[in-house]
Amino acid sequence: MNHLAHVFLAGPDPDLQLGGLLADFWRGAPDPGWREGVRKGVALHRKIDVYTDSHPIVAGMRERFEPPFRRYAGILLDIYFDHALARRWSDYAGEEVDAVSARALRLVEENRDWLPADLLRFAAYMHANGLFGAYARRDMIEHVLAGMSRRLSRANPLAEGGAVLWQNAEALDLGFAEFFPDLIRYAQEQRSDA
Length: 194
Known about the structure:
By secondary structure, the protein is an all-alpha fold. It has helices at residues 3-9, 14-22, 36-54, 56-62, 73-87, 89-92, 97-110, 117-129, 138-151, 161-167, 169-193. The radius of gyration is 16 Å and the shape is globular.
C-alpha cells in the first residue's frame, strides 16, 4: 500500500493518519517522544505492509510481472493500489479524496517542527501535484514511478513500469477489488486491538 491507502486505513484518528504517512519516511523504531497515537500509526502502517505482502491474492498479482519488473512488483503494486483506490474512492469512503488530502497536509503542517525533512518534501510535492486525487490519473502514476526510479540507488526499470501496469490493469483491478476489503477488515481489527 502507498500513501493514500495508509491514510485511509488508519481510520479517523489524526495521529494514526500522521503515523501512517510518517512510516514511509522513518526507519527503525518510532521515537518514544512521539505521541502514542503517532507511534501506533507507524506500527499499523508496518503491519498493513506485512499483511499486504503476505496475502495470497497479492502474491498472485506479483506473479504477473515478468523480469526485470518482478523484482519491483511490490513497489509497482503499492503505487497501483493507490491508483485503484483513487479511481474507486467513493466505493470505500464517505468523504471526498480532496478532503483527505487537505487533512493530511494540515497534519504535516501542524507537526512540521519534528517531522523528517523527507516527509515535509513529500507534503510539498503532494500539494503541488494535487495528490491524493491525482493518483487516479495514469500520467500521475507514471510520474510517480519515474520519481521513485530516480531515488533508488541502483539502476531499475520503474520509470517504464507504467506500461506493464496498464497491460495488466484489468487483472490488477480485479485483484485489488478482491483484496482490499480483506485489508480494510484487517486494519479495523488492528486499530481496535491497539
